[in-house]
Give the backbone structure.
Amino acid sequence: MLRFLRLSLVYSLMSIGVISCKSYQLTDVQPVSESKKTVENLYFSSPEDYVYKCQMDIYKNHVSGILIIKKLSETTHRVALTSDFGNKLIDFEISQDDFKLNYVLPDLDKKVVINFLKNDFRELLKKQYPIHESFENKDARIYLSKNDHKGYYLFFNKESRLLKKIIYTRNNKEKIDFTFEAKKHIFADSLNLQHKDFRINIKLVQITETESD
């Protein structure tokens, strides 16, 4: 908990500790034709609660807790993070166009902290992607979606047809890698969110009633 409360100090160092990003390019792929116009990330599309053990590594600070994601409507999700002891840390509602902060621990009520969480979860919970180009390699079908200065590379496993990875770019620079492990199209068993220009990593692991089995 004390480490989490020191996050505001860590964020003040971000401008010093930024890691340079190179232009992102696919390798060992070939272009393919595609009849589909859009692809979707369905991992957070169910009305059931998505409950995860959450670990955040932000520079040298380690934070753990419980993260709950709930779909409120076709466009909006609610996200709540508590400490391992059950203390609420932050609670917000988010869509691609709106953001409503329901609660934040006073020590975390910093603009840079809120923006970090808002931007990351907005990208994570984005559902629909128009297809601009399609590629494949031996393991995956890859779709490129573009929106102004943003780019998204979505990797679908050829055998399972499940979404395995999203690489988010801005101005053709790799910004965030989202890596998923899943058995179903609507639920990711685990997620690893890795920033490329900050030393920030978020890991989510599914919590279920049969977890101890």
Q: What stands out?
A: Residues 39 and 93 are 24 Å apart (CA to CA). The longest strand covers residues 173-184. The radius of gyration is 18 Å. The mean pLDDT is 87.
